[in-house]
Structures are given as C-alpha cells and as structure tokens.
Design a protein that fits this description.
Elements: H1 2-25, H2 34-49, H3 57-74, H4 79-108, H5 111-116, H6 118-123, H7 127-141, H8 151-174, H9 188-256, H10 260-271, H11 274-295, H12 311-316, H13 318-330, H14 332-339, H15 341-344
Length: 348
C-alpha cells in the first residue's frame, strides 16, 4: 500500500511538472533544444513538489531563485518577460503549495498519518488537478504565440507580480509559530491571504492577454497607415508619369510641325535635356552591364558619358528622380520617337 502511494506520488508530480511547463510555453517561448527543455521540466517539477510550511522560510527562499534562474536560461524572449512569467508561476504554485501543506492537509488527515508522512504523500496529489486547470485555462485564453509587449509593459507586469509573491513570502518567512504545529483555526486569515495571492494569477494573466491584443491592434494600425501612405505615393507618381507622357507627346507633335532645319535644331536641344537622359539611362546602364560581364570593361556611348552633369540637382530632388526613373521604365518608346523624329515625319 505504501509503495503504491509512493509510485502514485511520483507519477502525479511528473505529470504536474509537464503540465506546468506546457502552460508556461503559451506565455513565453521555450527553447526547442532538448537539454534546456529538460532543465525547465526539472524546475517545474521542483516547484510542484516543494513542501511549503508556514514559519519555515528555507524551502521557499531556495526554490524561488532556482526556478527563476532556470526560466531565464531555458526560455527565449526579453529578459523582463522571462522574469515576470517566472514570478507569476512561482507565486501561484507556491501559494497553492502553502495552502495544501498547511490547511488542506490538516483538514483531511489525522496526526497519525502526519507522523509517518503518509498524509503529505497523498495531499501532494492535489497538485495534479490544480496543474491541469492551470494548463487548460492558459491554453484556452492565452494570446497568440508571436505576441510581443514593450519593455515598459513588462516592467508594469513585473511590479504587479511582486504583490502576490510578496504576500506569500511574508506569510511563510515572517510568521513565528508558538508551538511545533501550525494551528489553522487560529490563523484563518493566512488562508485568505494565500487565496488572494493564488487568484492574483487570473488578473495577471488577463493583463497579459489584454496588453498583447492591444499591442497587436497597434501594429496592425501602423501597418495599415504605412500601406495607405505607400499607395497614395504610388498613385501620385503614376499621375505625374501620365502627365509627363502627355507633355512629351505634345512636344513631339509640335516638333513634327516645325520646318526641317528648325526641327533638327530643336531635336538636338531636346536630346541634351536631363529628363531625356533619364529616359535613356536604363538602356545605357543595361548596355554597360552587358559589356562588363562579357569583356570586363565598360565603354559608355557618347550620349551617356556626361551622365553626372546634372546629378547634384537630381540628388536634391529625390521625388523628381523617382518619377523620371519610372518614366524611363514605362515610356521609353516616347524617347525613341523623339530620337527618330526627323525620319518619321515628312518635310513641310
């Protein structure tokens, strides 16, 4: 009978540690490597199996920093996130252990079982339904896996987490019992304080969920504003390109109506304009790239050699540069018509 109770006790603790570890994985990214996950499982198992007596500060003062160190080295995410989530789970489970070992045990078992420790072996099994409820609630109401919070939000949650942890630490470490046994009927107020610290996990978990959703909405609004500005800029550029195309077409029509000598002089002047250079710049650049890949050297054509004569002006006006480049990509045919205008129209 005793051996069966011990086997059941070990199985319950292992399963409870596994449930707590997976409950934590919904709030903080856990390392995918096997060794860190094994250490985290050991920390959760230590947390679930630790006996907390009111008036005995050794167990709680030793378990809390060990669990926080394990969480800090085996989980990913921001440092304040790891500290806050570790404190949330440690204060919740330690408060339940204090209620279990001081109140639930004394209400259910007699002193005969207590003297041999069998009552504590059985009372430790209550950690299993508690861990199961914790896991199911965290799984159902947890935020998205990729949720992010700012450091200021984690600082706020850290300060809120200190309160329930401070309640548990003050009750366990500062109380000095008058006798060997802790009288639960004389100190019923401690049970209410431990219950408040236990239920504080619900409010902290709700805060994390609400802040994560708010942060996600802010990111979505930011992305929507960026997309709106981008499409407005694209629409403005397309409008300017259409206007540029219309003006070039009108200029070509005017040139075609000029007399022969005057038309040739006007065509030479138009070819020297920076805007027409930008219209043929993609063609010159592609030609230079092909020459460099094939021969290892670049020989620019005559119309592309003085390509930096107007570069400072274009560098100062980035919007004009982008419009001209788009015009060169979309309306290269207009420039080709301008280059060959003397041969495409009859003399008048």
């Amino acid at each position: 009978m005793i051996a069966l109770i011990k086997i059941l006790h070990i199985a319950v603790l292992l399963l409870s540690g596994w449930l707590v570890m997976h409950a934590m994985s919904y709030l903080i990214p856990v390392s995918v490597k096997k060794l860190p996950r094994l250490f985290l499982f050991f920390g959760c198992l230590l947390l679930c199996s630790m006996t907390i007596f009111i008036g005995d500060p050794f167990n709680i003062l030793a378990t809390t920093p060990v669990f926080l160190i394990i969480v800090a080295f085996t989980c990913n995410g921001a440092l304040w996130q790891r500290i806050t989530i570790g404190l949330m789970f440690s204060s919740t489970i330690l408060s339940f252990n204090a209620l279990r070992d001081n109140y639930i045990h004394d209400l259910l078992f007699s002193k005969t079982w207590t003297q041999y420790g069998h009552g504590y072996l059985i009372s430790c099994t209550f950690i299993l339904p508690f861990s199961l409820i914790l896991y199911l609630c965290t799984r159902k109401f947890a935020p998205d896996k990729d949720y992010t919070l700012s450091d200021s939000m984690w600082h706020l949650l850290f300060l809120l987490t200190i309160i329930p942890l401070g309640i548990v630490l003050s009750i366990v470490t500062l109380f000095r019992p008058s006798g060997f046994y802790f009288d639960i009927f004389l100190h019923r107020e401690y049970a209410f304080l431990l219950l408040i610290a236990l239920l504080a996990f619900i409010s902290l978990f709700w805060c994390v969920t609400v802040l994560a959703r708010q942060r996600k909405l802010e990111q979505q609004n930011t992305f929507a504003e960026i997309n709106r500005r981008y499409y407005e800029s694209m629409e403005q550029q397309h409008f300017e390109i259409r206007r540029l195309k219309h003006d070039l077409a009108n200029h070509i029509q005017v040139l075609s109506a000029l007399p022969g000598a005057l038309r040739q002089r006007a065509v030479r002047q138009c070819r020297s304009l920076p805007i027409l250079y930008l219209l043929r710049r993609p063609h010159c650049q592609r030609r230079a790239d092909r020459q460099k890949r094939r021969y290892g050297t670049v020989q620019y054509p005559s119309e592309c050699r003085n390509r930096y004569s107007f570069a400072p002006a274009l560098r100062q006006d980035g919007h004009l540069r982008s419009v001209c480049q788009r015009a060169g990509q979309c309306h290269g045919s207009v420039h080709e018509a301008g280059r060959n205008i003397s041969g495409n129209f009859p003399e008048k």
